[in-house]
Design goal:
Structural class: mainly alpha
Radius of gyration: 38 Å
Helix content: over 70%
Distance between the termini: 94 Å
Shape: rod-shaped
Largest sheet: none
């Protein structure tokens, strides 16, 4: 029995006696040498930095959109509602004036 703790599952035999192990070892060393190359490390660092900057940019864009949206709701929407009410009141006054027979005043040109 092995002295290492087993984590369950099926244990596979060692491949030390396998003739293909030397070629797989050399391919692993090639892959590991490529993975440890400074250009690959620099590429990983650049990708990590780009992801960090993108995350921060999206976060700040979201905050700016929240501020713009709430400002619009608090300041602009009540103004639009009040302008609509005033327009309806002007139209009602013009309608009443035409029913009463008084000369109607043309609405101001914009």
């Amino acid at each position: 029995m092995s002295t290492q703790a087993r984590r369950g599952g099926v244990s596979l035999p060692d491949k030390r006696g396998n003739p293909r192990s030397s070629s797989s070892a050399s391919s692993k060393s090639i892959v590991s040498s490529i993975a440890e190359h400074p250009i690959v490390a620099r590429g990983k660092q650049v990708a990590s930095d780009a992801a960090y900057v993108t995350k921060k940019l999206l976060n700040s864009t979201g905050k700016a959109a929240w501020i713009a949206g709430t400002t619009f709701l608090v300041l602009v929407v009540p103004l639009i509602i009040e302008m609509d009410r005033e327009q309806q009141l002007n139209e009602l006054e013009l309608q009443q004036a035409s029913l009463l027979g008084t000369p109607s005043i043309a609405p101001p040109q914009k």
